[in-house]
């Protein structure tokens, strides 16, 4: 039987600012990428999300990012290697401590936003992130953009690599994500997205923004927790896959 992981970015509320519905998403996903305070999230909220994930049996990963609260981690940064390595170590360590108190364990790392997109192709910053993960715990898996150069760089460094596809994002014919600055970059039709992800699991392809098919080999599917209608979309994807006989299970 085919199987796939379903993940979402959670723990991103900050003070009086609420982002997404963590409780509802944790009833749907199998893995939770939990913010570490650099792009979003405060300590109390992150701890609450971790406790809820532990109660639901959802696997937890560190959603590390550039230090960019104002830009929600979506602004590219040319961070010096020493700073980037230390930033990633700091974030993983903070989440590990909170997770321990919450009764769970950090099992993987998934970079967020601009950091995720940058290290998919920038070998210098990718190496910094890889070295930081290895310095903390080389058994932590790294979630990466499916088909990107980072796949080989991380594997060559000895990390377990989880290739990821995005349910609610448009793809270019080359298999990369369409920039959020472009029209049509974020998808909103629940039914279409669910059918699109079923085809991904069955055939290993997604329809690109120009209508062509692009090959995407994925171990996990992400539904962004901050998107409008995120919970309904995640549930539609899960239901579509389950009804087709696909097993939903965490990769970690």
UniProtKB/TrEMBL annotation:
One Pfam family here: LamB_YcsF
Molecular functions (GO terms): 5-oxoprolinase (ATP-hydrolyzing) activity; ATP binding
Catalytic class of the enzyme: hydrolase
SUPFAM superfamilies: Glycoside hydrolase/deacetylase
Domain of life: Bacteria
Keyword Hydrolase: yes
EC number: 3.5.2.9
InterPro entries associated with the record: Glyco_hydro/deAcase_b/a-brl, LamB/YcsF/PxpA-like
Gene Ontology BP, a term: carbohydrate metabolic process
Catalytic function, reaction form: 5-oxo-L-proline + ATP + 2 H2O = L-glutamate + ADP + phosphate + H(+)
Keyword list, A-Z: ATP-binding, Hydrolase, Nucleotide-binding
Subunit structure: Forms a complex composed of PxpA, PxpB and PxpC.
Functional note: Catalyzes the cleavage of 5-oxoproline to form L-glutamate coupled to the hydrolysis of ATP to ADP and inorganic phosphate.
UniProt family annotation: Belongs to the LamB/PxpA family.
PANTHER family per the UniProt record, alphabetical: 5-OXOPROLINASE SUBUNIT A (PTHR30292:SF0), UNCHARACTERIZED PROTEIN YBGL-RELATED (PTHR30292)
Protein name: 5-oxoprolinase subunit A
Species for this entry: Comamonas serinivorans
């Amino acid at each position: 039987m085919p199987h796939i992981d379903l993940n979402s970015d959670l723990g991103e509320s900050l003070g009086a600012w609420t982002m997404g519905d963590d409780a509802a998403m944790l009833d749907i996903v199998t893995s939770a990428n939990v913010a570490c305070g650099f792009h979003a999230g405060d300590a109390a909220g992150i701890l609450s999300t971790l406790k809820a994930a532990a109660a639901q049996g959802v696997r937890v990963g560190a959603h590390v990012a550039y230090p960019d609260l104002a830009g929600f981690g979506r602004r590219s940064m040319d961070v010096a290697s020493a700073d980037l390595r230390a930033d990633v170590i700091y974030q993983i360590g903070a989440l590990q401590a909170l997770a321990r108190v919450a009764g769970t364990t950090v099992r993987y790392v998934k970079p967020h936003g601009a950091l995720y997109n940058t290290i998919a192709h920038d070998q210098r910053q990718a190496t910094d992130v890889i070295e930081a993960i290895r310095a903390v715990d080389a058994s932590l898996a790294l979630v990466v953009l499916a088909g990107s150069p980072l796949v080989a760089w991380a594997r060559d460094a000895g990390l377990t690599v989880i290739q990821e596809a995005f349910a609610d994002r448009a793809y270019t014919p080359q298999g990369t994500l369409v920039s959020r600055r472009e029209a049509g970059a974020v998808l909103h039709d629940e039914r279409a997205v669910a059918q699109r992800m079923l085809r991904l699991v069955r055939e290993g392809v997604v329809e690109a923004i120009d209508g062509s098919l692009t090959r995407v080999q994925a171990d996990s599917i992400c539904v962004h927790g901050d998107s409008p209608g995120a919970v309904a979309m995640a549930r539609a994807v899960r239901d579509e896959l389950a009804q087709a006989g696909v097993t939903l299970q965490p990769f970690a």
